[in-house]
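User: My collaborator sent over this chain with a note saying "see what the structure looks like." That's all I know about it. Can you take a look?
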Amino acid sequence: MAEKFELDLLANVKAGWFTEHRELIVSGIAGLLLLAGWLVGRADAPRTLSLGLLLGAYAAGGVYTLRDAWESVRNRRFDIDILMIVAAAGAAALGAWEEGALLLFLFSLGHALEHMAMERARKAIEALAELAPKTATVQRDGKEIEVGIEALQRGDQVIVKPGQRIPADGQVATGCSAVDQAPVTGESMPVDKQPGDKVFAGTINGEGALVVEVIKLSSESTLARMVKMVAEAQIQISPTQRFTDRFERIFVPAVLVGVGLLIVLPPLFGFPFAESFYRAMAVLVAASPCALAIATPSAVLSGIARAARGGVLIKGGAHLENLGVLTAIAFDKTGTLTIGKPAVTDVVAVSGSEERLLTVAAAVESRSAHPLAQAVVAEAKGRGLTWNEAGEVEAVTGKGVRAEFDGRKVTIGNVKLFDGEPIPDGIQQQVERLQTEGKSIMLIQADGQFLGIVALADTPRETVKQVLERLHQLGIQKTIMLTGDNERVGRAIADAVGLDEIKAGLLPEDKVKAMEELSQRYGQVAMVGDGVNDAPAMARATVGIAMGGAGTDVALETADVALMADDLSKLPFAVALSRASRRIIRQNLWVSLGVVALLIPATLSGWAGIGVAVLIHEGSTLVVVINALRLLAYKE
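Assistant: Without extra context I'll predict from the sequence alone. Here is the result:
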């Protein structure tokens, strides 16, 4: 089904104007023939001429409806098309050719306009497939040649000039530039790229030239997989759609039986057969749940397409609806709420300046590959500091390092490295304060004298606090951290960003149990993680939400929802869009069911004939589709 959807998208691109609009054209012909037949009938022309024109209107208006009805009969399924064909045939049997032709004309017009409106939503998805360029400039055998993107191989060196779209997923081999990743990740600002950084097909290069090494074939790119997954999402049935499908399977046969009784029973009690038959046909039109059939799919399609355009991949209508009923959201800490790597947070100098303390620390730590050591070096370089190379370095596992620097014996490490040595009260107090805040501590000593402290921590992402505030505004009652770190570290981050609860010291299986407990307490709970270690907990959640879907294959595969950019800023957008989608689905259901509920008694009592029933009935179908299409223009 997903492959068929993708082929349909491509076919629509290549199809001519007539092919794309032929249903509307045929419907228009039916309308013209109906008008001509009606005018001829009023002009005292031969009845055969008027009848011929009306028969032409029947043929033009009913060709697509009859085709769909025949398919339904072959599949032993009763649906709306069958109801319309029966009603039109009944009108003809009564000699009410104008009413029957009007019914088929308006029904076919409604279908044509409905398909055109739905095509707008599909084009939002189709636009994703069109983002990647069709050709790429490749370096081969010392020459630059242009090839189709389907001919690109892993390892190819692709030249991307300023302003061009990147043709394939890869990593920067040479060059530096800012890349606009909004088409894939939804990020509002260009992202700086340098050698070694990943880039994605369909994103737009900035002012610098890049040479990109291809790491994925065109069919495997993040963009291609997004198109495929969004296509697959269209065939995922939402809870509301399941309800309407069950309703139709029962309601349509019930209507046919009821209409049959309405034809047969009244004449037995002296009611004129012609009037009874006409009224039954009007009821048949009134009871056809056309608007109900399209109410949910149109909203789901529009919502998923809008989310994809905003950098959020939602894998089906069920997940789109479930996002809107969440009462609590659980977050992994490392890499989700935090950046995922340590950074220097405090430089406390007790002897000399901060710059001198950091220079000494960086000179020694530059000889180590430990993440904490590299964080110190990065901080020093960020402040523009330089240093001479330290002498021989001795690593003390789990505690720190010793080295020679500028003729002095330097010792850097945690408190354990200085066991047995007196630590000044001032430094001890600072150590306790920083450790209480959940930070890792480096004590720096030179020739037995303490120079100061460097503290490091995995810091919260910049936007996390604002994201959590916005989620609370949207109605999320509780936000919870699930982390494998100790309580002190987790609590420091939770307090900094404004989380409601924290569960610390959890193994992956513990996170699953925690999700089960949270579901019992709060009902509908989502889990946000990186899609790898958190996959079991995400699977247990009402909705599993993965971070950085554009960068990790596993995130795309395991989650129900993927935030394509590696940050949480799109999460409130996804929740708000889901709630808007649910509102529109409910509005559509009220309109569609309300029209049926009003029209059935109106036609039964004779207040409304076939013509009025058709106008109101088909008008409601267009109302629900147009209402659903509002989601394409959704802005939080």
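A starting point for your reply to your collaborator: The CA atoms of residues 18 and 25 lie 8 Å apart.
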